[in-house]
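call fold(seq) -> C-alpha cells
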Amino acid sequence: MAEFTVDTKLFRELGELLVGRDSTAVVELVKNSYDADATKVTILGTNLENPEKGSIIVEDDGIGMDVEDFEKGFLRIAGRTKNTTDRRSPWFKRRFTGEKGVGRLAAHKLARNLEIVSRKWNGAKRNLETGFPAGKGARATIDWDGVERLETLQQVAKSKSVATHELPQQELKGRPAGTRLILKKLRRAWSARTLDRFFREVITLTPPAALVEPLPKGLVEGRTILPVVNVRDAQREAGFKIEFAGEFLQREPDIPGSIESAAWVIEIDCGAEDRMLKLAVLPTKATRKEFPGAEAFQLKRKLDKDAPAVGFQARILQRQHTAWPAALAGIRMYYEGFRVLPYGDPSDDWLDLDRDYRSRGRGELGRLRRFSDWKLPDGDPNEALTLQGNKMWFGAVFLTRAHAGDLKMLVNREGFLPGPEFDFIGDMVRLGIDLQIRQNYSARMVLTQARKQEQERQRRAVPASPASQAPTSHLVNSMQSDAIGSLRQARAALARGDTDAVQQTISSVEKTLSSAKELIEEGASEATMYRVLASMGLEQAAFIHEVNALAILSQGIAQSLEGLAKSITDQKLSRRISAVAKDCRDIRDRLRRNAVYLADMTGIEGRRRRSKQPLLERFEKVLDFHKSSIEKRRIEIKTNIPANTKTPAMFPAEVSAVFNNLLSNAIKFAGENGLIKVSATTDDGELVVRFENTGDAVDLKIADRWFEPFRSSTSEVEESLGQGMGLGLTVTKSLLDEYGGGIQFVSPSRGFATAIEARIPTS
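ret:
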C-alpha cells in the first residue's frame, strides 16, 4: 500500500520560510507562553558568542504541559487546533496568537538542541501570588541534528533524537506550573552587532507603557478619546511581562516611561462594528506654552459603507526639536499585544513619512485633499514644509483578531499581506499625522504673525519717540493717552445716550489696554532680570575711577623701572627689569582699554540721546576691548563693515552691547587659531549684521533655546570674556526687539561652523 513519506529536512525548509529572523523566533516562543496563560516570561542568554557552549532559556509561569500535551501539540506538524474559531486560553480567556505550529520551528532556528521541562496545571484555582498549582509534568529533549540525519520523519519514533518522560512527583511537589525551554548548541555566534540588531527588534516586543497607560494628568487639555487602550482580546487579564536576563540584560536599553517631552499627541479609535472613526490631535502643555495659539482638533465620523470593516486603536507621540531615542522612534504595529515586524524599524517606511520628508516642498498636504468633504481645518500653501520623518514619531497601532481578523500575515511572520484593510489602516493613521502637521503649522503661523505685528508696532514707534526715550516707553505712553481719549469719548457718548458708540469705544479701549498689558508684563519680566545685573553695577562709576587710578599707578611703576634699568650696569639684570616695566605698561594699556569701554557702556552719555551710530566705529571700540583675548587665541578677525554704514537712531550703549555680546560669543567658540568674519549689509529696509565663526557649530533645529535667559553655553572662565551667565543673547534679542528688529542663528557660509544675523529696520 502506497503512503506519503516526509523528509526530515522539512524542519529546515519550513524554518527558513516561516521564521525569518532570530527576533521573530523569540517572538513565536513568547507567544506560546502567552497562549499558555503566562503572566511573566524570562529570556536568559549565556555564552552567546560561543555556539557550542551558549544557551538561550525561555521560562514562563503558564499552565504547562504533560507528556500527552507535548506529543499532541509540540510534536504534531501543522496541528489544526490553533486554527479553530475563537480558540482561547483556559484561564484568562486570551485569544490565541500562535498559529500553524511555528513554535517548534522557532526553536529549531535558534539552536540544534532543545530541552523542555514543563509542569502542568492541575485545574485548581490560580493563586494570585504563586500562580497555577501543578499536578503532573513532562521532560523532553529534541536533538535536531539527530532528526535531520534520519531520512524520514517516520524513523524518528524509533530513534533517540526525540525523548519524552513524565516528571517524577518530587520535581512537582510544592512547585507551580510553568514551562522552561533550554536551547543549546546555538546555530550561530551572537556578536555584539547581532545583539544590537536583536534588541532593536524585540525591545518593543510588547508596547511601551507610555503608549498604553492613561496620559499623565495635565499633559493635554480636555478628555482624550482613549482613556484605556485595548491592546489584547482577553476576557480577563492579569498582565503580561517580559524580562531579559543574563547577557540579554546587559544590553537592554533604557526606555524612558515619561512622555512629557512630546509636543503633540494623536489618538485614533476606529470601530469595526459601529464603523465610527474617532480622531484627536492634541497639543501638550509644553506646546501650548511655546505656542499659545495651538489648538486641539477632534473628528468623529461615520465611515462609508464601502470602507473596509477593520477596527484598530492608535496612540502616537510627536516631538518638535529632537528625535526620539532609536529604540522608540517609528510607528509600530501590534497584533494581540505583540509587535509585528518590520513596521517601525529604521529601514521601514510603511507610512511614507521619510519619503515625504525628503521630497517635501511648498504646498498643502496632498493626502488631506482626499478628505475635502470631512470638514477638516483649512490648509496653508506652505504647510508641507513642516513634514517630519519617522524619527520624530513614537507610536503604535493596536490590532486584535476580533476586529482585524481579515488581515493576513506573510508566511515569514514579518508584515501583513497588502490589501484594502491594510491600506485603510495606513490611510487613517496618516490622516491623524497630517492633521497634526496642519495644526502645528497653524499654531506656528499664529505666533509668527503676532511677532510680525509686534515688530511692525515697534518700528512705527521708533521715529515717533523722542531721541531721549526708548521706543517702548513712548509706545506705552501713547497707548495710555489713546485709552484716556477713548474713555472721554465714551463718557460723551453715554451722556447723549449713544449706546452703540459706547460699546465700540469700550472694545477699542480693551484692545489698547490688552496690548499695553503685554508690553508692561514683558518689561516687568525683563526688569527683574536687569535688577540682578544692576545690583552688581551700582558702584560702576567708582569702579571705573579705581581702574583709571590703577592704570596711572602702573604707568608710574613702569617709568621708575625703566629709569632703574638704565642705571644698572649688569646687562642681564637690566633686561629683566625692562621686561617687568613692559608688563606694567601692558597692564596700564589693558586697564585703560577696559575703563574706556566701561565708561562708554555705562556712562550717562551712552543712554542720554538716541542718534544714528557709525557702525564700524562702534564695532572697533568693542574689538579693541577684546584685543587681548583675540591675540591670546590667535584668532583672525575679518571685518566687512562699510565705513559709511550707520544704525537707525539708537542709544550708543545699545549698539555696543549688541556687538559685545555677539563678538564675545564668537571668540569663545571660534577655537584656537580660529576665524571670525563680521559683515554688515542693507537688505530691504533693514540693516543686517552677520557674525560667522569657525569652531563649534550650533544645531539650527534647537537654536532658539539659546535666546532664553540663563541658557549659558559655556562654563569657561576667561580673562576679559568671563564665564557665560546665559544672558548675552537674551539681552541682545531684547535690545533688537525694542526697534522692531530680530536675531537668529542661520546657515553659515562655507568654511564656517556657526552664523548669527541681527536685523534692525532702518526706516
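Confidence is low (pLDDT under 50) at residues 519-540, 603-607, 710-725.
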